[in-house]
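Possible race condition, two jobs.
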Amino acid sequence: MLVKLDNSVLLSKSIDVISELVSEVRIKVNEFGMSITARDPANVAMVGFRLPKGAFSQFEVDDEVLGVNLDDFKRILKRAGTGSSLILERQDNLLKIQIQDRIRRNFSLNLIDIDTEDKEMPGLEFSSRVEIDSIDFIASIEDCAVVANSCSFIIEDGKFIIEAKGLNSARSEFSGDEAKIQAENCKAKYSLEYLQKFIKGSKLTEKTILKFANDHPLKMDCRTEHMGISFILAPRVETDD
């Protein structure tokens, strides 16, 4: 396996986001590109990541599975600058990483055995889809985190509302002028601890797509032309509101 990525930021920033949820992953590299699917240890959230073959300037692979410690991988990737190219090559039980910019720098990352079954993002059905400017979504989640540890996503009469209530409260309201809303009236509550990790993915894209339903898991998609990160988060279902 030998692949070259001219825009190293695509991978380094994505790995940084994924490492918020899991510490070890199996990176799949095949004819379609590079992908990761992982579930967090608490079994509350999942993350899916994809760099398609077209994102790479050089792509020589068979089917590969690379077990990596994300903290170690992240520290190496952070040594690459904005204009750096990245070459990844498997040699036996090592991942050789070359950073090319003004000079060439070489690293070796020890590959590890990860004894987990391969996972796939589940197919879920949703009654609501909201496409929102990432900057607005990030601000709303950060507002809610100031006052509570969970927030509700609400569809009410064609409006999308993000609301948190504790001793204090925060609320953001979006009409069809500020977001693309295709939804039925519903309400679901989610952990802000996880959403604050997810919005690091939103910082990589102009738009964030949210899919949810009444007391149903959330699916959140952050996509660019050459990169996609998706998250799934279980709802908080409480007997008394």
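Job #2 (started ~2 s after job #1):
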Amino acid sequence: MPRAVRGLAVTAYGILLWPAALWLAWLLLAKVDFLYPAGYRLLNIPATLSTYVPQNRHGRQDFIRTDAVEHARLFAAIAEAVRHGGKGLEELRYHDPQGRELGRLLTWDEVTHLRDVAHLVERGERAGLLALVGWAVLALLLSLGHVPVPRAGRLLAASLAGLAVLAGALFALGPVEVFYAWHRWVFPPDHPWFFYYQDSLMSSLMQAPNLFGFIGALWLGVSLGLLLALNHAVRLAVRFLMPRRSS
């Protein structure tokens, strides 16, 4: 393989490796409901609920009668619906610890917003799958061509440097401001996406946007681990397929 082609292939391999790892990490975290119970305790979401649910302006003050098990179930149901086109969001009901139905969880504005999120997630998952396929093809070609891929230390240093730049820009601009600007950019301008805790059981249940910061940090950490594992697997494959020198 010509040197220029090798360089381009290795560069493309590195570029595709991150979205591939992000997608795989997303799938893994979705299987465990993004560790919502851990974030629930870390952020003290019960305190948020006890403060704002009694102030709910849509007559849903009885949500205060629900418990942590029900909160985890509702979050899991929302996450599942968002990953499947928003199906069933309007049917979500909340119950007291004895299983008695108390009311509908989401307002129609919240359902509209979560359906927008579902469309965004669908596009992101499709892009992640394509990145994984592209990366796997390149990894196979590089392995068969005995082309070495970056060492773990180099890959880790480059990844951490990139993450440091992104984190610096995020904190310079302000995490909340970036969060709001991103919403204005990706969602239809006439669709609601900002909900006060007093108006939204969903926002209170997720302590938005704080829970998303917790999930984002978790997602990056798992993605980085998968990125290094995938790269190590390819390095082993290249080494295994390398022609043995005769003694």
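The longest strand covers residues 101-104.
Logs attached separately.
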